[in-house]
Amino acid sequence: MKISEIFNLGAQQVQLDFVDINIKKDYPVYIDPYLISIRTDPWSIEVDRTIKNFFSNVAEHIRNDEHSKAIDLFQFMSEPKETCLGISRTGTDNGRGVGEENATGIIKEIIRSKAIERGVVQNIEDIIVFVDDVDKDKLSDVTTNIIRKHLIDYTKQQCKIWGIPLTVKESLPYWDPVEEDWVTCRDELLFFRGRELVLVPKAIVSFISEYNAQKYGWHFVISEERDEQLSRRSALVKYKKYKNGKEKYFLPKKDVDKAISKQIADGEFESRKDFLRQYTQKKPELFERFRKSRKGAAKRPLVSDYCS
What we know:
Radius of gyration: 22 Å
Strand content: 5-15%
Largest sheet: 3 strands, antiparallel
Number of helices: 12
Structural class: mainly alpha
Shape: elongated
Number of strands: 9
Order of helices and strands: HEHHHHHHHEEEEEEHEEHHH
Distance between the termini: 10 Å
């Protein structure tokens, strides 16, 4: 049952500004904080400010070696089942604190990686590139918790447009950038058969994000490392002499990738993301180039493919 069917909207996904979720299905699309950060509409700018305010508080505590305070900021996270986005949302009801353990694991991994102290992580979306055990699903969940009030307000706006009734109840926690703390409030919320639903703008969700460790590693780090290996004629570089006397030095990127994998297997690096952290610390301009390049590469997902 899709939102458009439940409330008899008489509209297709293309006519709706929000993701027309089917509450009985998993939707492998995710709220993407990077997409939010590059949008220029007033709503997205305000949402991005809230995300940055939360993460700046986390980063400040970590830099000040106040790890317990940073961990405390993740204690109010719940698995945001009301959006029906991501994996394993099928047939579930809202529950407070469902995702608390995973959320605590994320902040502990951020602390352990020292990615913030080393300066490689500056925005919340950067953790998907540099911090182990953080994928697009977890990052989406964290972001949803932070911006829940913005999503509630968006839901109210859309429900007013489409004539969908709302119910006044207590909200789940969300981040208040003024109070700089987690708060709740009594608000007009969308319910169906006792289950809260939150509408999400199509423009801020993605299926395959352009902003991830794989794309950064392959297109920027490995390319850079290959060029360096070629410039110093390392043992990895291959040599070929043609019959006409011409010579060629070359190095496939896959060979560089294999060499890095061997270094990881030999214990020189903890993981692929640890390699990216250390490489970026030496060459921060590389990640800055990646970040700028993603703005042009990021595209609005074909949400309708997942809403049929």
